[in-house]
Specification:
single chain; about 350 residues; alpha/beta; Quinone Oxidoreductase, Chain A, domain 1; Rossmann fold; 2 domains; 7-stranded mixed beta sheet; 6-stranded parallel beta sheet; globular; NAD(P)-bd_dom_sf; oxidoreductase activity; zinc; ADH-like_C; oxidoreductase
């Protein structure tokens, strides 16, 4: 088979690799129908994730068909169409019992495309398949379902739920990439008074408005004043950081109201200053987190019922063997306007390229 193989910082290619096989009785082999490229994949290519060894197939999000299942797999069987979660769960350790699957200590957590071969290939081995794949509702298209492997549960769990969005809240989302947009979309489930989106890219701010943001602000033009004006000087009840830079994190701590919540979702590669000399008296709650994907079954049902706006986030689509082109378009999002790039089998209508 072929897969997208990491060879070191700045080096990766679509090439022949060994077919995966069942190693443990809880494994399943999935024939890949659709995958997507994540910002974390770009971090790996830049050398920011040193645990990823050269020779690893990248990717941690996929939709596909079960072609083989180990003798201890009971939830799915060959022929089932499934969503492959970005998080693998052993189901036996303390963290899995608490549904914090991202912290799994039994051989799970974020392992696909990180510690073992991932999904950006024609086939993928998924350990602990009973808890790590989800049967797809028949009405759900692969291009929509694949967005539920990572970005929607991440924006919802680490942003909206950790931030404790409540009816009537002012919610500010700093960073309107795919995860920030997913947070904007799922924040609507809690009837906030308003959602304010902050970014530097006009195309992403337009996308934010399309997904329900009530106001948008260019991060270079003083979003603090807009949020202050909208809240009578109080600040936002919930601020979701969805970028991962020191500047954006510190902006979030400036625009949150006393007693509010800052939910950090962004992947930080550099230290950010926590200004406790200013924040200690403000009764803030600051949360961090790796997605656990416990919400994925709920999100799948909502998507199948047409309650989640997934399709607007897919801006580009390619055949699976156009992986290098897909990465290039996603990496140049400022020029291409890419939000999510989906790659998959040519016979699926998802693969008609919308834009390049």
């Amino acid at each position: 088979m072929k897969g997208f193989v990491f060879h070191g910082p700045g080096q990766a290619s679509w090439e022949s690799v060994p077919d995966p096989g069942i190693k443990d009785p809880t494994d399943a082999i999935v024939r890949v129908e659709a995958v997507t490229v994540c910002g974390t994949d770009l971090h790996i290519l830049k050398g920011h994730v040193p645990e990823v060894e050269p020779g690893t197939v990248l990717g941690h999000e996929a939709v596909g068909e079960i072609v083989e299942a180990g003798r201890e797999v009971h939830a799915v069987r060959p022929g089932d169409r499934v969503l492959v979660s970005c998080i693998t769960a052993c189901g036996r350790c303390r963290y899995c019992w608490e549904r914090t699957y991202g912290q799994c200590r039994g051989g799970g957590g974020w392992i696909l495309g990180h510690l073992i071969d991932g999904t950006q290939a024609e086939y993928v081995r998924v350990p602990y398949a009973d808890l790590s794949v989800h049967t797809l509702p028949g009405a759900l298209d692969g291009k929509d379902a694949v967005l539920l492997a990572d970005i929607f549960p991440t924006g919802y769990e680490v942003g909206v739920l950790n931030g404790r969005v409540q009816p009537g809240d002012t919610v500010a989302v700093v960073g309107t990439g795919p995860v920030g947009l997913a947070a904007i979309a799922t924040a609507q489930l809690y009837a906030p008074e308003r959602v304010v989106a902050v970014d530097m890219a006009a195309t992403r701010l337009d996308a934010a408005k399309g997904l329900g943001a009530d106001a948008v602000a260019d991060a270079r033009e003083g979003p603090e004043q807009l949020i202050e004006d909208l809240t009578d000087g109080l600040g936002a009840d919930v601020v979701i950081e969805a970028v991962g830079t020191p500047e954006t994190f510190e902006l979030c701590t400036r625009v949150v109201r006393p007693g509010g919540h800052v939910a950090n979702v962004g992947v930080h590669g550099k230290p950010a200053t926590l200004h406790l000399e200013e924040l200690w008296s403000r009764n803030l709650t600051i949360t961090t987190g790796l997605v656990d994907t416990y919400s994925t079954p709920t999100l799948l049902r909502m998507a199948a019922a047409g309650r989640l706006p997934t399709s607007p986030l897919v801006t580009h689509a390619f055949p699976l063997d156009f992986m290098e082109e897909g990465y290039d378009v996603f990496a140049r999002a400022a020029d291409t306007g890419a939000l999510k790039v989906v790659l998959g089998e040519p016979q699926h209508d998802v693969l008609a390229v919308r834009a390049t």
